[in-house]
Amino acid sequence: MQEASAAAAAAAADDKREVRRAVEEKPVVVVVGRRGCCMAHVARRLLLGQGANPTVLEVSDDADPAALVDVALQARRRKDGDKADDDGGGAAGARHAAAFPAVFIGGRLVGGLDRLMAMHIAGELVPVLKQAGALWL
């Protein structure tokens, strides 16, 4: 029983480390989803179709979306020098609405697949990708 608990804690720590590193090192587009998640696949395909090359992190099945989003937002704040600005709905709102896949563009939390699709339909996705440096044209 304790071995399973220790393994789960180690997996959660690894997931947090991966998300923090991805947002710090590859802040253009990061999609965080569970292994084999069809919605993360759809988010990736949508971004590829727009010309972006997203980094996709697959986390363990028992990963906590809110905890991973908090880690990513903290990494971004640390990189920005703790500047207070909009985190795509704010950290408190992100904590309550966190779900997989979580999409980050330019180090900012965009939201899930529903928000990504809404931005695409409204014509807001390409300008955000350009501003983040994910598109060169």
Automatic annotation (TrEMBL):
The reply on keyword Ion transport is no
Is Lyase found in the keyword set? no
Query: Which terms are listed as keywords in the entry?
Result: Cytoplasm, Redox-active center
Give the GO cellular component terms, alphabetically.
Answer: cytoplasm
Chief place of localization:
cytoplasm
**Compartment list:** Cytoplasm
Which branch of life, at top level?
Eukaryota
Q: Which SUPFAM superfamilies match?
A: Thioredoxin-like
The UniProt family comment states: Belongs to the glutaredoxin family. CC-type subfamily.
Q: What is the name listed in the Swiss-Prot or TrEMBL entry for this protein? A: Uncharacterized protein
Q: Which organism is it from?
A: Oryza meyeriana var. granulata
